[in-house]
Amino acid sequence: QEITVSGTVTSSDGTTLPGVTVVVKENPSKGTVTDVDGKYTIKVLPDQTLEFSFVGMETQTIPIEGRTLINVTMNEASQMIEELVVVGYGVQKKSLVSSSVSKVSSEDIEKAAPLRVEQALQGRTAGVQVISNSGQPGEGFTVRIRGVGTNGTSDPLYIVDGMPVGGIDYLNPNDIQSVEILKDASASAIYGARAANGVVLITTKQGEKGKFSVNYDYSMGFQNAWKKVSLLNAKEYAIIMNESYANDNKAIPFPDMAVIDSLGNGTDWQDEIFYKNAPTYNHQFSVSGGNENSTFMSSLSYTYQDGIVAKGKSNYERYTYRLNSTHKIGKFSIGNSIAYTNKITRGIDPNEEFGGPLSKAINMDPITPVKNPDGTWGVSNYATQEVVNPVAYLSILNSKYVENKVVGGVWGELEIIKGLKARTSFNVDYANGSSRSFIPIYDLGGNVRTSTSEANGTVNKWFTWQNENTLTYTKAFGDHNVSAMIGMTANRYYHEYIGGKKNDLLFNDFEHAWINNGTDEDSYKAWGGADEHALLSYFGRVNYDFKGKYVFEGVLRADGSSNFGVNNRFGYFPAFSAGWLLSKEDFLQGVNAISFLKLRAGWGRNGNEAIGAFRYTSLIGAGSKYTFGTDEVITVGSNPIAISNPDLKWETSEQTNIGIDARFLSDRLSVTIDLYNKLTKDLLVVAPIPAFIGNGAPYVNGGSVRNKGVELELGYKTLWNGIGINANLSGSYNKNEVIDINNSEGRIYGTSLAVGMYNITMMEEGYPIAYFWGYKTAGVFQNQEQILNYKSSDGTVIQPNAKPGDLIWVDQNDDGKIDDNDRTQIGNPYPDFTLGLNLGLSWKDFDFSMFWYGAFGQEIFNGTRRYDLPMSNWNSSVLDRWTGEGTSNSHPRVTIDDPNQNYFKVSDFYVEDGSFLRLKNVTLGYTLPTSISQKVKVQKLRVFVTGTNLLTFTKYSGFDPEIGARSSLDIGIDRNIYPQARTFLFGVNLSF
Amino acid sequence: CTKDFLELEPLTDRSEDNFYKTEQDAFEAIVSIYDVLQWQTGGGYHPWDLVCNILSDDAFAGGSGPGDRPGLVRMGKFSNFTNDEEPLGLWKDRYAGIYRANLFLDKVENIQFENEDLKTRFIAEARFLRGYFYYELVQFYGHIPLILKPLSPTENQQVAADPADVYDQIADDLYYAYQNLPENIPAAEKGRASKWAAGALLARVYLFHKGYGKGVLGITRDLKAGDKTLAETDIEAIIDDIVNNSGHALVPNYADLWGVGNENNVESIFEIQHTQKADWGDWNWRNGTEGNWAVVMTGFRGVEDPIYDIGWSFQPASKSLADEFETGDPRYSVSILDAAAEGLVYKPQDCYQHTGYAFKKFYPRKADKPATNDALNWPYNRPVIRFADVLLMGAELNLDNDLGKAQDYYSRVRKRAFGDSHVPPTLTNDADGLDLIYHERRVEFAGEGLRYWDLLRRGLTYAEEKINAAAGAAPLDETFNSATLGLLPIPQTEITLSGNKLTQNAGY
Which of residues 389-448 of A touch B (CB under 8 A)? Predict the structure, then answer.
């Protein structure tokens, strides 16, 4: 016989709580929520139990025991104290962790609804900088943990369920339980020779015991470019070109004013290549459950995203499937996981000055039409070389990449005696990627043409296996808690590829562009090769704590790598850390404001072995060839590729970290502060040797970089008038300095841009890594007198050939002439400070969240205009150029020949403030009240709408201030970056 | 087990430890030296003939504008920055060739040969190529380190050798090659060096040493090959040997020297081989191609023509060169693409330092255009030494002691151009005679890269006068800088990386 139970729910300070979920524990499909006054009424059987739950509060379970009035006081959750974090080879209580580890939970990831995991990491943890390489679907991310310490690979090590993987784009973000980022060396040293750039540990979801659930999520959305770059229209272009020619005393290209007036706006090439309302959609389906002995989690997903540029030529498609299971048989546990991913990408060059369609769109003159009246492609009379009709160019791009990947493994664990566990695992990572492209016959003018069709394809296969064995012993001796772990890992990687091509196809379309359809036997070609890698490691860790107050950890790892010769095959990586939980001391027991306080400090060392194989020895390459004979036989020659260095060893990174974790006001406010000092030394650099030695220079260990910084994470959550508030702020400050480079110049020259702008970036002692290296300007010469008065100390006129309107170059060394010795730091591509702010609100059945991300202090090198092609279109900022005395002191005059090299020189004219603050994500969700959803047998039904990149505050004039790295010494250079999309997404979450 | 697990062998390469063992290894090592002959970049774009043409009074740098290969534009104006790409690239390539030759010569003694003659031939080829590279280096830079064995990176503190020693080493290598290389190169081996190639190159070195080495660099002693001093009579004997015994001869019709169908003809004594078959497309390693991209660099921009293709409008030929041809010289229309005369449709406004003339011998032609990656794969070979050059060198050498022979050699070249009924001018043993030969050399070898060195070996004043006379108003303003002695700057990084043991050439 059902009875009616009612009551009021209040918080510990006495305010009533609306929106609290009340369900019958024995029948979870039955439930209600409290009203605005915190009151509820529910019909139940008298021997049942009620569960009261609310965000940020401890769930209360209250047996009814026949009562009809039950008032409940909810306490704020304090479960954080016992939160577990995944560390290398095990989990630890977060309170006892003495190193610097940040965690991103599955809830955080779900809120961001990302297509890729890295997106969910952006701005959520201090010290982790995440930049999308471009806005193209499927593009990678530049992830940097605590700055950049090397000229080589600076990507972190990714470990998924214990298996190191090359990248994490194969993962379905919804499958992830948690992401832990090991930031300092005392945390990451357990991964030794590969951990110098930090470690990202990813744990995938398992089923829960006793709970069977089925989830389906769907979302679909529309994307658009958030911004267009402001360029000259056709009429303005003609006027500026006339002025450019006139300034060189050359015949002007548009002499007829009436013609100029008739040009109007001309073609807007950006509009022509942007794909408006580009769709994206996503299906997720998962089933999970388990009983006392077994659990399972199985998921299936499909994701499709079109790019906002180049409709049909830039998109991403991904299917994923995962099955995780665990079983317990007495003292023996086993488990397995398998993940399969199929992805199909089609892409364009996303940030490239020569081949990029965006570069063509920005530089193409606006006079040329997309198509001529007769239907043929418009060909420019003004733009030259690679700058051709971008729409026509897109029509000839035909390529596709398909990757199939399986990552999986099995593990077994035996509890030999209480506290002593042996664990073994075997994992594999197999991937097969095939790319195929078709080049039709085309002639787009300029240099962009070909006279025969071509089909080509390459297949890559990667295979890695890993066997790992650990032994762990945990025991308490009175107040002394000890845990020790030893282990070993063997990891083997193998890669091979094979490809071919043939010309002159029987069919002229991508569908039939297979090599066998080529007819030109002479063009038939094949290529292939293979490489491998082996890593053998031994490691151990000891953890000790006394009464949970004093914590100590020691780690040692030995790594042997096939990348090094016998002289330095093994490296040793120790680490120590200690923590003091002050809040457990008696003297803080009475201080109610402080609920938790821990000080921690650590030191450790780890390495970076990613330098490629056999750099220590001298290989004989077969790449030199010469043609002999009247039949032109290409004959293979052989020669040493480079000079060897048998003493080559890994880069070493040493890091000291001091941190505080604290929580106040009954855990409402949490604070984590970390200070670190990270020195990466023995950098693997190619030591420049004189060219007269005659062969490639060897790799040597010669350089060091320091990163120092402060990280702050602040969290606050509370309930205010029925509104749940959850705010998190993360901020990090990093200072990067190259300490030394062991070559005679103390420099490593960085990347170049287009034709003629050499070494825009530089790595040099005393400067931040990859700083922009160029000429400083001191305004624009306003008149001839100023030119003649611009002298060095010894009276030399520095720019005697300049004309009014030309840039004034700063003669840094005061030698009376302007040359490379006057180049200096004109910018820094890395931010000083990054900031992430998450704000979550919940009220009744509504939830709202927003996420702001900002990076400040970095510069961007705006290399968007092909200055080497003087007829390229201009950014409309050219309208403010110098045209006579007093008109401009920053934008020089326009000329075609550019005798003063105003636009040719790498200078601060191109450097812009790249700081930005961006509203990355706003989500509003509504969950159908349980009372209604249960009528259709649905446990949870939520609908939501999300907007991404809705607001961006930046002074940067180009497409997008987020510009990822092409390599460690090539970042922040805008070659017309594929911009981030502004997306509106609508979705539904269903649970049964 | 640990050791085996970590000790991997490279899968696609051999290592220095297990190479240089067999005859086949030795041949592959020799081929790798030849490979460097056809390199056209060590940084920037610097095909040898194009660079030499730009330096001379025959051509300007060109390109699309002053920012297109600024190192070449500055080279044309004798004002290279010491860190320009092209001077470093020219230097780097040649020292790479020298390294490979030195390495081979260092390893050859431990290679098992079944055929000792083959070993001798390989050694002679390596020494020929080393001499070839050193000759180009000493011409461009004057004061260079002389390295005759593979160096370790720690042996970086090299000083510049006395130019006299460099010339002697070149002569020693070439004289050895002249004595030991085979006389006949079978059809399947065309492109490999012969006795005649070594002899002809030695004659060229001799003349440059005499005119420029002694006249400008101030070398006081005679050229020596080992202990043997090379007198003028020795060189004349070599020339006569080539003229009489080599089997090489003039191709009857000058126009038949050019085009892919006429490569490695009877007149060709040494020729750098190019082919489009490699179909190379890697722009980051352009030296990997077997093609000749001087060709694409030469073509005008925006050409719309049934025969001629487009290019990048580098090395526009000078009006001075066009004017040098006598009226009715059939070599003019073979050597010079005169855009106005041929009514060529193109975009002169896109061509920097434009003159309306292009070198035609290696001008890109649609019929020969590579099917893919065309820019990098043009198949035109580059002649290094033609029989005509041997004759004209012979005429020059004999001017002072055998005027009859000089006239004979000179007349053969004239008559081949103008026909058998032509009456050539009469040579005299004075400056007028030399001027006649110089005129002949300029038009006969137009575009082949010899002119600049001919100018220099008559002294800086002569070079200055000719080069300045060929210049014009901006952007064709080019003034020879005598302070540089006509040399390129030693690349700044080489000076720095040598621990400042190398010193910069005067004028930079």
Answer: 439, 447
Q: What are the residues facing A779 on neighbouring strands?
A: none
With CB atoms and an 8 Å threshold, state whether A898 touches B83: no
Spatial separation of the C-alpha atoms in residues A288 and B253, rounded to whole Å: 87
Q: Pairing mode, if any, of strands A49-53 and A39-44?
A: unpaired
Is A624 in the B-facing interface, judged by CB distances under 8 Å? yes
Contacts of A870 in chain B (CB under 8 A): 65
Question: What is the maximal distance between C-alpha atoms in chain B?
Answer: 85
ipTM score above 0.90? yes
Q: B503 at the A interface (CB within 8 A)?
A: no
Closest CB to B189 among A530, A629, A743 = A629
Strands A49-53 and A21-24: antiparallel
pLDDT for residue A79: 47
CA distance A193 to A171: 25
- Best of B280, B497, B500, B508 to disrupt the A interface (most A CBs within 10 Å) is B497
Mutation choice for A interface testing from B2, B4, B16, B103 by most A CBs within 10 A: B16
CB B379 within 8 A of CB B291: yes
* Angstrom distance (rounded) from CA B42 to CA B90: 6
In this predicted structure, the answer to whether residue B115 has a pLDDT above a threshold of 80 is yes
> Cβ of A593: how many Cβ atoms within 10 Å?
9
In this complex, which of A632, A697, A898 lies closest to B153 when CB atoms are compared?
A697
pLDDT the model gives residue A869: 83
Identify the helix (H) or strand (E) that includes residue B163. Answer: helix B163-180
> CB distance from A625 to chain B under 8 Å?
yes
Mutation site for B-interface testing, chosen from A494, A523, A609, A632 by largest number of B Cβ within 10 Å: A632
d(CA A671, CA A679): 26
- Flag if B31 and A620 touch (Cβ within 8 Å): no
* Residues ≥6 apart with Cβ < 8 Å to B342: none
Domain boundaries for CATH 2.170.130.10 within chain A: 80-129+147-214
- Residue A557's CB is within 10 A of a number of other CB atoms, namely 28
Report CB contact under 8 Å: A632, B499.
Answer: no
Q: Do B497 and A695 touch (CB under 8 A)?
A: no
Query: How far apart, in Å, are the Cα atoms of A144 and each of A168, A734, A763, A770, A973?
Result: 15, 11, 17, 14, 17
The per-residue pLDDT for A950 is 94
Q: B470 pLDDT band (50/70/90 cuts)? A: very high
Q: Are the beta carbons of B64 and A569 separated by less than 8 Å? A: no
pLDDT of residue A766: 93
DSSP 8-state assignment for residue A231: B
With CA atoms as reference, report the closest residue to A78 among A589, A668, A585. Answer: A668
Residue ranges of B 371-410 with Cβ closer than 8 A to chain A: 371-372, 374-375, 379
Nearest residue on chain B to A444, alpha-carbon basis: B302
Q: Is residue B81 within 8 angstroms of chain A, CB to CB?
A: yes
CA B343 centroid distance within chain: 32
- What pLDDT digit, counting tens, does each position of B140-156 carry? 999 999 999 998 878 88
Task: Strands of A17-100 (E only): list them.
Answer: 21-24, 27-33, 39-44, 49-53, 60-63, 72-74, 84-87, 90-93
CATH 2.60.40.1120 domain extents, chain A: 3-77
Confidence (pLDDT) at A744: 67
What number does CATH give the domain A80-129+147-214?
2.170.130.10
Is the model's pLDDT at B2 over the cut of 60?
A: no
The ranges of chain A with pLDDT < 50 are 79-81
- Among B107, B271, B473, B291, residue whose Cα is nearest residue A248: B473
The CATH code belonging to domain A3-77 is: 2.60.40.1120
Give the per-residue pLDDT at A12: 76
Distance from chain centroid for Cα A773: 25
